[in-house]
Structures are given as structure tokens and as C-alpha cells.
Amino acid sequence: MQIKGLATGLAVAAGLTIPSLAMAKSPTITAIQDRGTLLCSGHNGSYFGFVEVNDQNEWKGLDIDLCRAMTTALLGDPEKAQIVPLSWAQRFPALQSGDVDVIIKATGWTMGRDTELGLQFSIPYFFGGAQFMAHGDLGITEAKDLEGGTICVEAGTTIERIAANYLQSLAVEHTMVSYEKASELRAAYLANRCDSFVAWGPFLAVLRATELENPDAHVILNDQLSNEPISAAMRQGDEDFVDFTNWMLAALLIAEEEGITSENVEEMAANPPNPKIARLLGAEPGMGERLGLRDTWAKEMIAAMGNYGEIYHRNLGENSPYKLERGLNNLWSHGGVLYAPQLD
Fold first, then answer.
1. If residue 234 lies in a helix (H) or strand (E), which one and from where to where?
2. How much is the average pLDDT of 300-309?
3. Is 337 inside any structural domain?
4. pLDDT > 70 fraction of the chain, expressed in percent and rounded
């Protein structure tokens, strides 16, 4: 008896159907392809290194480039990304209403968002925690010394709650003042309207190094309030779109692991050194069919935007003004915590 025939017979006897390898296309992906653009979250100002506007009024940053990578995978052209400026508080209502298709905007994956807001999250693409920065003339290095102080924070972020909970755990009496825009928050801090500025650690490091007139006059306190996984957020109910987003991010990480770059991707696709690379780049069929896309989507995405490491270094790392060390945001094989699921 043939094993294939036996398996088919058992499935029929059990009242089951054997699924096709090709997945049904996501309604979100269908809408994006029909529209011809991906509606992606921006920021109502600049969030340095992640979502910002340069001197030519062009969007740039790690999150912007990930949106463009997704756009290339779906539509074949990074320029078909439409960036929608949003405040932190606006981002979830905008996603729920359909004003954007996905949020890639330094967004922490939390239980409340996952269970109460009708959101689903991708695999993490960045890890970062909240910290305090204080005026150096206060002479403090720890949050316990902020007793009676005023703390500035950006409204609508997880950091607002994390900071309040942390200071409460230390029994530190304080006044929390929130601002809608990062520019307003920075201005308030620099005008000494608050003693401390609480924000995402990577953002504070970039801001202190590049935007403050005298970096040495400002101290990032020792306290590490959190270490959040940062993920793309999507509406619940479209599992195929979540699958696509996960594999889009995974493809960027796998490319870095395998040494595939924007410079060599065409050569790698033409002469794949192993079956994994052949599958990833579409030299071996199947990578697209499973997601309802063309087999070459990952190759085109990497050619346009680079692998994860290229995107990181262009926006935050050695090739950026910020020179931010990768730390936890390196591949697992290089001392970090980022890894991709297995591509079989």
C-alpha cells in the first residue's frame, strides 16, 4: 500500500480535507493591491532614527524603511508607500478605522493592546526600554531622587503608564505632564518646565547626542524601566496578513544571517549557494504561493531596501548620524536577541 494513498484515505475517513499549499489571499492584501498603495503610519513630527522628516521634507527612519520594505514585497515598488502622519494617541484608532493598513511606529507589544484593542502583533523587530533623562545640574543619577519633581512624557504611549507605575513603586511623589508632540515635549524639557524627560532609551540616546546643544548637561539616569518588544500592529481577523508581515520581517533577518545584501541579491538568486537561499529568493518555487504573492517578493524587497542590518545601520547605526550600537538588536548569532523562524 502506498503511504500517500493511506494518508488520503485516513483524512477522508476522518471527515477532513487536505489543505492546498496555496493560502487564501488576505483581504487586507487584496485591498492594498487594488488601491495600489500601502497606507503606513508616520509621525506628527520627528521621532529620530525611527520616523522622521529630513531637510528635503522626505520621510526616513527604521520604521519608514520597514514600511517601504513591506510595500515592495506587496506592490513591487517602495515608492508606493503612503506615509500617514499620526500622533501616538491617533495610531490605534487610525488602524481600527482603516485609515492605515499597518502600524510600524516604535509600538510596544503589550497584553492590553493585544486583548482589548482588537490588534494583532508581529514578531518583534526591535527591543528597547524606557528611561529618564534629567538636567545635569540636579546632581542626580537615579529615579528615586526625582522626589517632588515634574516629569514630561509623550501622550498615548506605554511609557506614560510604565513611568507612573515605576515611580509609584519607588514611592516617589511627582507631577506627570504629557504632550501630544515630541517637539513640544523637547521644548518643555529644554525650557526647564520639567525636571526630567521620560522616553524610550534609544530615542533619548539619539536626542542627547545629536539635538541638544550641550549633551554633557543632561544625564540619562541608571534606571531601566522596561525592555519592550517592538512589533508591527495589525487589525485582528486577518491571519493571512499577520503571516505575511511575520515572514516579511523574517526574510530581512534571514537575509542578514545568510549574507544576502542589496548589492549581491541578484547574484545570490541566480546562483543560490543552498536550498534555503533558493527558497527565500524565489529561485525555488513556493515562497510566494504560500502567502498569495509572487515567488520573487523577498528578492525584490532586499534589492530595494537591503537586509535588516543594512536598514538598521542606515537609520540608527554606523551609517547614520546617531551611531547607535545594535546591542540586543543584533542577530542571536552576534550577541543579540533577534532571530527568524525556520524557513522550510
1. strand 233-235
2. 98
3. no
4. 93
